Amino acid sequence: MFYREAGQFKTSYKSDQAIFPILQDRIGLGLIVAIALIGIPFIATDGFLNSIMIPFLILALAAIGLNILTGYCGQLSLGTGAFMGVGAYSCYKLATIFPDVTILVHILLSGFFAAAAGVIFGLPSLRIKGLYLAITTLAAQFFLEWMFVRWGWLFNYNESGAIQNVPQKLFGVQITGAAADPVTRYLVVLSIVVFLTWIASNIIRGRIGRSWMMIRDMDIAAELMGIKPLNAKLSAFAVSSYFCGVAGALMVFFWLGSAEADVFNINLSFQVLFMVIIGGMGSLIGSFMGAAFIFVLPVVIRTIPRVLGLDIGGATVEHVSTMAIGALIVLFLIVEPHGLARLWQIGKEKLRNWPFPYG
Amino acid sequence: MKFRSLAIALAATAITAGGLAATAQAQEHYIPNLSYRTGPYAGGGIPFANGFGDYFTMLNERDGGIGGVPVRVEECETGYNSQKGIECYEATKGNNPLVYTPLSTGITLGIIPQTTQAKTPILSMGYGLSAAGIGETFPYTFTYPTSYWNQMSSILKYIDANGGLEGKKIGYIYLDAGYGKEPIPVLEALSEQMGFEWVGFPVAGKDMQNQGSQWLNVRKERPDWMIMWGWGAMNATAVKEAIKTRFPLDRFIGNWWAGANADLDPVGPDGKGYLSANFSGIGTDFPALKDVQKYVVDAGKSQADADKVGDVLYNRGLYNAVIIAEAIRVAQEMTGKKELTGADMKIGLENIKLDGARLEELGLAGFAGDLIGSCKDHEGGSPVFIQQWNGTEWERKTDPIEPMLEITRPLLEDAAAGYIADKPDWKGQTCS
User: Fold this and answer.
1) Cross-chain Cβ contact A162/B185 below 8 Å
2) How many domains, chain B?
C-alpha cells in the first residue's frame, strides 16, 4: 500500500538507471543515514557505540570487501583475516613513521598495501578455481600471519609483539586513542564506511563490476566476449583486499586499540566469510545484514541476561548464544539459501502487492 | 512475514539492550572477571576462574565481605578472544569496577590505554605487558607478583645452583607469539653475563600439538637444559616429545603457565621429574583453603569439583583474589572509606604488603613469596619456586628463588620508554 512505485514515472535514462529507482527506497535510505549520523550519536551509550556500532560497521566493510571477491567475482577466499592484518600493520607502520600526517590518510593508504598483497596471492586464481583456490588463499592466511609474528620491523620490535593504536587529533579533536570520545570515533568510522560503500556500489555498477560478474557467471563466455580474466580477477582481488585492509586498519585504530598477530587468524576469515554467506553473496546491503547477524546478534543475546539482572554464569550465556546463533544460521539457510539480502528482496516484492496479492 | 516480525522483535531487543544504562548499585565491591571458560584454552581458564571466584565467595560467607561490604564478582566470558574482551570491558565499566583481571595478554594490551584514562587499575597477574611494572609510566597497571623477565632470571638461577650455567647450552622452546618471545632479551643479556649459550626452538600456534621437527632439532643441538614458555596443548605435547627423545625430564623446566595439573595429567606417570616454575602454593594444606572448602565447596556454592580444589591453576586464581582482597583492605584503611573507586584501589595496590607475617594472618603461611608494592614498582619482584611432577601430583622442590632485579629492571624501563615513544599525550605519574 505504502511501498508502491505507482505514479513514479521515469522521464530520463538517468532516472531509469538510478541505484534506487523507487522513491520510498530513497526516503528509507535517507532515514537510515540520518538516524546513523544524527540519531545514534545523541541517544546511544558509550557501550552501545564501542561494542556494537563501531565493530558492526568495520566488519560490514570487511564483508563488502570479501563480497566483491566472492559474491561478485566468484573467487572463494579464506585469506580475508590476513589481508585485514596487512592493512592494520601497514597503517601502524605509516602512523609511526609519519606521525604528523593525519590517521585518516594512513588508513586510506594502508588499503593499498593490502591490495598489493591481495594481487600477489590472487595470481593462482588465474589457473585454479573454486575450492582449490580457497586452499591457495589459505596459504596467504598462514604465510601472512607467520610474517606478522616473525618480522619484528612490522611492530617496531616492541617486546609485546603487538601493534598499538596511535593517539591522534584532527582539527584539535581527539579521534583515536583512549581519550577519543566514542561518538567521534563512531562518526569517523561511519563516514569512512559510507564513503567506501558508495565507491563500491559505483565500481560494481560500472564496467569493472560487470566484468567481475561475467567471470563469476561463466568465465569462458566472458573471455569469448573480450573480458581478460587476468585483469578482471586480479582487479577483484585488489579492490577486495583494499576494502579488507581498510577494515583491518579501522579495527585496530578505532575498535580494539591494539592487536597481536593472532587477532587476524583464520577465525576472522571465517567470521567474515559467514557474514557474506548469511548476508547474501553479491549484495552490498547483504554485507551489512550479515555483519549484524554474525556479530551483533550474539552480543545482544549475551547482553540480555545482564540487562534483565539474571544471575547466569558467563560461560552458560556463551554456550547458549553459540547454540542459538548456530540454530538460526541453519534456519535462515533452509528458509533462504541466498541469504538475508534475498529475504529482504522477497519481502519488498510482497510489500508492493500488499494487501491485495495476486498470482 | 513470520520472519519480519522476528526481525522486528530482534531489532527491538537490540535497541533496549544497548540503550539501558547501568542498573542501580547497592553497597558492594564490584569486580569484573574477564574469564574464559570456553574456547581453546578453557582447560586453563576454568580452574583459574573457580579459584578466583571461590575465595571471594568464602570472604562473603565467612566475614560478610571485606570491611563489611560484600564482594560481587561478575564473570564475563571472553573465550580468550580480544573482540569479546573489549565487549566485556564496555559492558562492565559502568558499574564502578575496582580492578580488571583481563586474563589474556591481548585483552590487557587493548584496554591499558582506556583503563588508564578511566582511572581503573588492571591487575594482570603474571601475564600482559611486562613493561607495565614501571609505575611511573603505567600508573593504573600492575603485574604483581612478578614478571616473565624476573621469572626467567629465577629459572636460570636455579640451573646455576644445580650444576652451574657456565659453558652450558640452554634450549629454549617457546610459543612463537609475543608471549613466548618476551623473555628473549633476558636470555640474551644473561647468556653473556653468566657465560652460557642458548638456542631457540619456536613452536607456531597452529603446531602446538605437532612438535616433531622442533624435538628433532633438540636432539641435534643436544642442549644441557631445556626451558619452555608454553601454553595450553603445547605443554603436554612438549613433555611427551621430550620423553620420546629421551631428554632427561629433571632438566626440563616450564614457566608458570607450563606447569598445571591439566598440563601433566595427560602425560601421567611418564612425566615424572618434569620441573616448572610457580609462584602460588600447591594443595589445600592452608587454613584459608580449608575455609574455602568448608564455606564454599562443601556448601555447593562453587563451580569447581571438590577434588580440583588446590590444583596449581585453582590456587593461582585464588592468589589473584587474595592480592585484590588485600588491596581492598589497604585502600579502605588508607582512604577511610568503606566503598571504593578505581582510584582508591590504585592506592591500595601500590601500598600492598603481603609478607610472610601477613600471609600467616590470612591463613596462607608459605603460600607465596613476599609481595611488597610501591608507586614505582608495579611489578612486585616476588620470587618464584620450582615444582616437580611426581607422576600424579606437583610437589614443591625449592625455596623461593629471588629474581635478578638489577638485570631486569633496566630492561623494563627501556620497554616502558618504548611503549610511550609514539604516544606524546601519555600521562604517567611521578613518584616521590
Assistant:
1) no
2) 2
